[in-house]
Amino acid sequence: TFCRGSIFLSPRPLPFLSLALAGCTVSHIADYDQKADVGITQLQKKTEAFRLRLERVAGTPEGNYTNYIATYDDIKVDLSSLQVRADALAQNRLTSEQLSLLSDSISAFEERHRTNGLRPIIVQESRKALDRQFAAILTLEVAKKRDLGEPRDTR
């Protein structure tokens, strides 16, 4: 015998029971965000072009940090915009954390450029690390897209 007040004796099942029986799934991660995907891809391209330019001029007067302050600022503004967007979406902690780590890496690279200048090998090594970070962020966004049942992205 079930006690009175249990969900089994209730004339109307509890709302969560109805959802469970209907086969609803609970998502613990934000949905795919096309604007974030496009923004991250554009930022990666901008950052890559910047690093290629720096690699060519590292160790020369043209590679001086003061020549690139505006470019660093531009990259930071784009990254800040993506961070604000990611932070505003519910259940988007992973993307937010990855963008924060990317921001830290770009800031560390800038600080190294500002205080010590750059050599080509430093730019090449940072390129590898930043590429891994961009790939991780984009992999997460593409995975969110697949979870929606949309066609696979063939970048």
Biggest pleated sheet: none
Q: Could you give the distance between the termini?
A: 60 Å
Query: Would you tell me the structural class of the helices and strands?
Result: mainly alpha
Order of helices and strands: HHHHH
Approximate helicity band? 55-70%
**Mean pLDDT across every amino acid position:** 84
Low-confidence parts, pLDDT < 50 over ≥5 residues? Answer: 1-11, 16-21
Structural commentary:
By secondary structure, this protein is mostly helical. It has five helices and no strands. Helix 4 (93-116) runs antiparallel to helix 5 (120-147). The model is unreliable at 1-11 and 16-21 (pLDDT under 50).
Q: What is the element layout, followed by pairings?
A:
Blueprint: H1 15-21, H2 34-57, H3 69-88, H4 93-116, H5 120-147
Helix pairs in contact: 2-3, 2-5, 3-4, 4-5
Task: Give the structure's gist in a few sentences.
The chain contains 5 helices and no strands. It is mostly helical and 155 residues long. Helix 2 runs antiparallel to helix 3.
What attributes does this structure have?
155 residues; mainly alpha; 5 helices
